[in-house]
């Protein structure tokens, strides 16, 4: 069998693996696959093998984009972002090649950078980006579902290379999906902004579609005026009315619905009586969401809620 002399060598270190080398390998793999180029992933610390690599990352002690060397462990590091978070191998690879995976869309590239790349770079460089509000409770990091496949101290480590390559394949699927979601969110965010700019009363925004909650809340909470938003449910013939969050950083509403409206379920007659809306169906006990049968009922309800005194208080989780 003839060897494929055109096969690119992607070289990283052997031994234990981390999120940055897994995600860096996945990014390079997707890039080369998109270009139609063949490649192999080699895990080693042998200097001669490293020097022969077409792409070397997280090993080699050098950052030089011209020769495709992307390590960050050298004494001088590999630089950092304006926010002070240093680059890891993943960040360097994404910086130079991620834009091609995003079809040259800088907005999509940036969304992935902030959502996935920067957090992984921070953790790999020992930078804290989260301050726990509750003792012994921390977020389950996005890299954890992959790193848990590292052998425990009780398990044999001889399969590390095959485990690494298996996780790279998993991450490739995640990255491809995240890019598609980012493209949809980028377009959706623009449509939500357009709805805001078109609204005559910017306190109440009608959405043209049922977008993901994080998308419309993050988008509208950046503007000072929106208090409520309405949209048609894509699961039933009903309309949803939501209170807009104070900012993208909190789930606290700018103006929750009145306490007297909250906690009524399944077409409770009392909810209809209290609100004066005959087709009101449900109001969340935390006062951020109401379901109404008709658009007319939804609009009437928001007008009534706007006239009610503010009753802002700490909210439980959604």
Task: Kindly describe this structure.
The strands form two sheets. The protein has a five-stranded mixed beta sheet. The chain has a five-stranded mixed beta sheet with strand order 6-7-8-10-9. The chain folds into two domains: 177 residues, no CATH class; 109 residues, no CATH class. The radius of gyration is 25 Å and the shape is elongated. The protein has nine helices and ten strands. The chain has 318 residues and is of the alpha/beta class.
Helix/strand layout:
Layout: E1 8-12, H1 19-35, E2 39-43, H2 47-51, E3 55-57, E4 63-64, E5 69-70, H3 89-101, H4 106-124, H5 144-147, H6 160-198, E6 204-206, H7 213-220, E7 228-232, E8 239-243, H8 269-275, E9 280-283, E10 289-292, H9 295-307
Parallel strand pairs: 1-2, 1-3, 3-5, 6-7
Antiparallel strand pairs: 4-5, 7-8, 8-10, 9-10
GO cellular component, one term: cytoplasm
Protein name: Metal-dependent protein hydrolase
Family: Belongs to the MYG1 family.
